[in-house]
Amino acid sequence: MEKPLWMISTTHMFIEVYLLMQVALIPVIIREFELSLLEASLVATVPNLVALFLNIPSGFLADRLSPNHLLFASMIIEGISGFLISQTSNFGILLIELSLLKISSPLYHISGLSQISRFAKPEKIGRVIGFHNALGNVGAAAGLISLTVFLATVGWRWTYLFWSVPVVVWGLIVLASPRLRSKQAGKTVEKHDGGLARWALLFSSGFVVLLAVVGLREVGNTGSQTFMTTYFVEMRGLSEAMASLIFGLGPFTGIAGSLIGGYLCERTGAKNAFSLITLAGAASLLALSLMSQLHLLAAIYLFYSFFGSAVWSPINTIVASVTPLSDRGLGYSVYFFMEGLLASVTPTLAAGVIELTNIWFIFPLSVIFLIASVIVFHFLTYPKQR
Fold this sequence. Notes:
Growth Hormone, Chain: A, mainly alpha
C-alpha cells in the first residue's frame, strides 16, 4: 500500500482515540455532575450537531486544499480540545469543549476518505477502506482501554490529557509530509458545469437511496450504542470501570471486523456485504438484550462490535461508486451530513423513549431500524462502481 494511504490511515487511528469516550463516560457524568439521563445525553447530541454543520464546508475544502493541511488542522483541533477537556469541572464548559473536539472529525473524514478513493485502485478500494477502518478501531480501542485504566486510578480527565500530546505531534508530521502535499488529487479530476447541473450529477438515484439507508441504519446503531455502558451499569449491575472495559474491548474485535468487512466487500460486492453484515449485527444486538451473565454479555457485545465495524467498508465503497470523482469530497460531506444529523438527534430521542419506558426497550427498537435499512437497500439498486 502506498505511503500516503498509510499516513491517512494512521491519522484515522488518532482521530478515533476520543470517539467513544464521552459515550462510555455517561454513567460517570451522570454521577459527577448530578444529571438526568436526558441531560447527560447532550454529550452525544450537542457535539454531533456542531460537527454536522461543518460537513458541507469540509467537503468543499477537501476538493480544493492539500490533504496534509486539512489533516494537520484536524489533529491540532483534536489535541488542543483534549487538553482543555482534561482541565474542566463544569458541565456546560465540557459540552463546549467536546463540541470543539468533534470539529476534527469532519475535517479529517471527508478529506481522508476522498483521498483514499482517489489513490486506491477501484477494484481494491473495499480492502483499502477496510484497513483504514481497522486502524480507526485500533485508535478507539486504545482510547477506551486507557480510559478504563485512568478511571480505576487517577480519574477520567487524565485520558484526554494523555492522548493530546501524541495527537499534536502526529499533526506536525502530517503537515511536513511531501507525499500528501504532492498527491492532492492523485488522479485527473473530471470537470463539469457548476450550479444545478453539478448538484443533479451528485444526487443520482443511487446516492439518494444510499442516504436513506444510511439514515435508517444510523438511528438503529446510535440508539443502542450511546447507552450501552448505561445499560451495563443500570440493568446488569456492572461497575463503571467494568462497563467501560467491556465497551473498550469492542473496537478490538472491530479491527478484525473492518478487515473482514473489506474482504467481503471485495469478494461478494458491497451491496451483499452490507446486507449480510447489518442483519448479523441486528441479530447479535437482539441477543445482547437477552443476556444477563457477564461472560455471555461480553461475548455477544464483541460480536455486535465486530459487525458494527465491518459495515463501514461496503458503505464507504458505495459512496465512492455513486458520486462523481470531481465532487467526491462534496459527496462524502453530504453522506456525513446525513449520518451526523441522525447521530445528533437520536441520543436525545432515545433518552426520552428510555425515560418513558425502560432502557431495555431501545434494543428491539434499534433492531427494527437496522432491518428496515436492509429492506430499503435490498429492493433498490445503485450504479455500479466505476
